[in-house]
TrEMBL record:
Reactions it catalyzes: UDP-alpha-D-glucose = UDP-alpha-D-galactose
PANTHER family: UDP-ARABINOSE 4-EPIMERASE 1, UDP-GLUCOSE 4-EPIMERASE
NAD-dependent epimerase/dehydratase domain sequence ranges: 3-249
Name assigned to this protein: UDP-glucose 4-epimerase
SUPFAM superfamilies registered for this protein in UniProt: NAD(P)-binding Rossmann-fold domains (SSF51735)
Gene3D superfamilies found in the cross-reference section: NAD(P)-binding Rossmann-like Domain (3.40.50.720), UDP-galactose 4-epimerase, domain 1 (3.90.25.10)
Keyword Transport: no
Co-factor(s): NAD(+)
Organism, scientific name: Streptomyces lichenis
Length: 322
């Protein structure tokens, strides 16, 4: 197999490329470098600079590298930006996957793995979110991921492609400091930023119906996300009829307060006080994956805990903010 990894120069994509390469899979990366960076790629992995929206580029890359499977990770992922710029999100995420699937179908590429998100569930009112929990996204970002999943399964059925959509829960951590996330829009880097600036980390609401009043999430190490892709890619390679939708989570709920406690310990800011602000609009009280289906289907479970996520993320942060 030769796997095309779109978005392979981005934060999650580069971890997937690294894990696929370590597992002996041949890969080629297509990335427009809008948020990715070529120096994230391991040596020997070819980089094609371009966008999945450009059909001619996609056709050429599929042909020249004799691609037999696609891992589609390229996309836009900021919830607030998607609310402000829905047309942009639908173009990048929905039109992007449409073009890629059309090219794959015409080229006869038989395997397609898609990066989806727990954002497809919206505000799930269940203790553990299973893949059968109804999808009800509450922002254009989540809508664009759900539309992508629909296309993936419909095209897979119509054109005889093995497919998988992987719904990531809250990704954190880094395999190495160099591969750390440069973005600052999630809880862990936002807390780092405040602590580094000598400011109090913000807690967006402590009056939720959860044990300590703060929101509960299922945090997952990006290396575990990457190993789940390797397992899914192997399954698709072995099973041309596969049509999978899988949560990638740990099934363990961690509250904002608990996460900040781990961050205090790891960063040495032991006595840092927090500032409780109002709730952030659109935040569900609790989103935790049921991780049974991926275990059953791929024999995969997460290996890393919250402390390793925070410690590895902090090493990356320190490297960028010496
Ligand atoms: C986690 C919790 C905040 C910052 C989003 C998207 C999701 C996926 C991942 C992309 C929440 C709280 C945060 C802070 C806080 N996106 N928080 N203080 O919102 O669960 O998920 O990112 O693929 O689709 O919705 O992640 O890291 O922003 O927030 O209290 O300074 O931390 O309210 O409860 P979220 P997050």
């Amino acid at each position: 197999m030769t796997w095309l990894i779109t978005g392979g120069a981005g934060f999650i994509g580069a971890h997937v490329v690294r894990a696929m390469a370590a597992a002996g899979e041949r890969t080629v990366v297509l990335d427009d470098l809008s948020t990715g960076s070529a120096d994230r790629l391991p040596p020997g992995v070819p980089l094609e600079t371009g966008t999945v929206l450009d059909r001619a580029t996609v056709d050429r890359v599929l042909r020249e590298h004799a691609v037999t499977g696609i891992v589609h990770i390229a996309g836009k992922k900021q919830v607030a930006e998607s609310v402000a710029r829905p047309l942009y999100y639908y173009r990048e995420n929905v039109e992007g996957i449409r073009v890629l699937l059309e090219a794959a179908a015409e080229a006869g590429t038989g395997r397609f793995l898609f990066s989806s998100s727990a954002a497809v569930y919206g505000m799930p009112d269940v203790d553990l979110v299973t893949e059968d929990t109804p999808c009800a996204p509450i922002n254009p970002y989540g809508e664009s991921k759900l539309a992508g999943e629909w296309l993936v399964s419909a095209v897979g059925r119509a054109h005889g492609m093995a497919t998988a959509s992987l719904r990531y829960f809250n990704v954190a951590g880094a395999a190495t400091p160099e591969l750390g996330d440069a973005g600052v829009f999630n809880l862990v880097p936002m807390v780092f930023e405040r602590l580094d600036a000598g400011e109090r980390p913000r807690v967006f609401g402590d009056d939720y119906p959860t044990p300590d009043g703060t929101c509960v999430r299922d945090y997952i190490h990006v290396e575990d996300i990457a190993s789940a892709h390797v397992a899914a890619a192997r399954r698709l390679a072995a099973d041309p009829d596969a049509s999978l939708v899988l949560n990638i989570g740990r099934g363990e709920g961690v509250s904002v307060t608990e996460m900040i406690d781990v961050i205090r310990e790891v960063t040495g800011h032991r006595d840092a006080a927090v500032e409780v602000t109002g709730r952030r609009p659109g935040d569900p009280a609790r989103v935790v994956a049921a991780a049974d289906r991926i275990r059953a289907e791929l024999d995969w479970t997460a290996r890393h805990g919250v402390k390793e996520m925070v410690a590895s993320a902090w090493a990356g942060w320190r490297r960028r903010h010496p």
